[in-house]
Design a protein that fits this description.
This protein has five helices and no strands. The chain has helices at 2-19, 24-52, 68-87, 92-100, 108-129. The protein starts with a helix and ends in an 11-residue tail after the last helix.
């Protein structure tokens, strides 16, 4: 599973690097930001599915600060630093690039981001369009 994640990051990094005119530092930061945003989107999707379909309610956010700005920043920084230590720390990005650059599937990272975003939007719009399916109708 981690190999797939590495390949997604390498694909995303190479695409961003090409768009940034071979600027490696900017590409590294932007790829971490996009990958972290995609991770947040996927966690949001899983959370919405657990609440709507499985009826599992979790109070995970009670552990985080009450201020919404600080809470959201904490979540974003958690994913950013997790990706940093997983992909970049101690020059691991160079190792990953040499290992997976030749195996690069074009647009793998872009497709991962686009599909994740479409799935969340589709779920949100379906709950708005069909609230009775998710037992969200307002009782009068």
């Amino acid at each position: 599973m981690l190999k797939i994640y590495y390949r997604i990051w390498v694909s995303l990094f190479l695409k961003i690097k090409l768009a940034q005119n071979e600027n490696k530092n900017a590409s590294l930061i932007l790829s971490l930001i996009v990958l972290s945003a995609t991770n947040i989107i996927n966690i949001l999707l899983i959370g919405i599915l657990l609440i709507l379909v499985a009826r599992i309610h979790s109070n995970v956010f009670d552990m985080l600060p009450v201020n919404k700005t600080i809470r959201n920043l904490s979540i974003a920084l958690f994913f950013f630093f997790s990706n940093y230590f997983l992909l970049v720390h101690n020059g691991k990005n160079e190792t990953l690039l040499t290992k997976y650059e030749n195996q690069n599937i074009k647009n793998l990272g872009s497709n991962y981001f686009i599909i994740s975003t479409i799935l969340v939007l589709l779920l949100i719009f379906s709950t708005i369009a069909f609230p009775e399916f998710f037992n969200l109708t307002v009782k009068k």
